[in-house]
Design brief:
23% of the residues lie in helices and 30% in strands. The chain is an alpha/beta fold and 273 residues long. Bound molecules: NADP nicotinamide-adenine-dinucleotide phosphate. NADP nicotinamide-adenine-dinucleotide phosphate binds at residues 87, 89, 135-137, 163-165, 200-201, 211-213, 241, 243-244, 247, 272-273.
């Protein structure tokens, strides 16, 4: 095993929908990362407990090799455990196996973190507002950033817009509410985090229903957030469906925003797959 690879143990699993789940694993003491970064996680399907209770015929079908995939970390750099948020892709080699995870299973963690969707990429002076726009499991890096007090201290308003197909797929709502309360209290401003849920394939009271680029162009996102979005006042981070990232990036550019390079510019992006 390479020096960077460590064994970690599954501590808990939360199932949100048949296709969405989260899990926590032990955190190796030496493992450091910045909020917003990714790691590579590995699974050897044949070693999962799930297959130990199956007939030989089923168990023999499980691959006996390590499969790795990039995952961004939900938990904060200060947490004792590492948390991840995953979709199940039926024909995907990795997640179709990972869905069978059980507490006590072992995974492999490549302790070399990567990715540049971190707030440290922005040079000071910072604008007053931070906009975090996510679809699906692309919420993960933003949850990590929102558990870092520095994020709350650095911006006057933080808008978290989170789009899912259905209400059921809007995971972590209670966590977001808890962050609003806990960190809002710490910075003496409970209204600092403005959460804008978006549900695109069901009509849900209190949620917007169009896709992010449309909501930016027709101004409904800004209206719901209660603040303007312009080149001088905002940093904007995008994470999730690659088509959303592309379409939203182009929309923001058409509104005068620029990509962040060498610390300068508004927009930073990460495709989630
Ligand atoms: P998704 O299709 O990405 O939808 C999540 C949200 O993003 C929905 O509100 C959707 O709106 C919106 N959206 C999609 N395309 C958009 C665009 N171009 N601009 C703005 N918003 C957009 O849902 P998902 O469940 O995360 O993933 C969908 C499929 O992608 C899955 O079937 C999976 O097989 C595949 N996939 C996902 C991942 C992953 O890590 N999430 C990885 C590999 C493959 P609409 O309802 O209008 O589409």
């Amino acid at each position: 095993m390479s020096d960077n690879i460590q064994r970690v143990t599954v501590l808990s699993k939360t199932t949100w929908t048949p296709n969405l789940f989260s899990f926590t694993v032990t955190r190796p003491e030496s493992f450091k990362f910045t909020a917003g970064q990714f790691v590579r996680l590995g699974v050897n399907p044949s070693k999962l407990k799930y297959y130990q209770n199956k007939s030989d015929e089923v168990a023999d079908k499980a691959l006996d090799e390590d499969i790795f995939r990039a995952y961004s970390i939900v938990s904060s750099p200060f947490d004792e455990v590492l948390e991840f948020f995953s979709i199940v892709i039926e024909d995907g080699a990795f997640t179709s196996q990972l869905q069978h995870l059980q507490v006590g299973d072992e995974l492999l963690l490549n302790t070399m973190p990567f990715g540049f969707l971190t707030l440290a990429r922005y040079q000071k002076p910072l604008p007053k507002d931070l906009w975090l726009l996510a679809t699906g499991t692309g919420l993960a890096p933003f949850l990590s950033m929102l558990q870092d007090l520095q994020t709350w201290e650095d911006y006057e308003h933080i808008v978290l817009a989170y789009s899912a197909r259905s209400k059921d797929e809007l995971a972590y709502i209670e966590t977001i509410e808890r962050l609003q309360e806990d960190f809002g209290t710490l910075v003496d401003n409970p209204a600092k985090l403005i959460f804008v849920p978006i549900v695109t394939r069901e009509k849900i009271e209190g949620a917007l229903s169009e896709r992010l680029p449309q909501l930016l162009l027709n101004g409904k996102l800004q209206q719901q957030a209660g603040i303007a979005l312009d080149i001088d006042s905002a940093h904007v981070m995008l994470c999730g469906n690659p088509e959303m990232v592309e379409d939203t990036k182009e929309t923001l550019k058409s509104m005068g925003m620029v990509m962040n390079r060498r610390g300068e510019g508004n927009i930073a992006v990460e495709n989630y797959w």
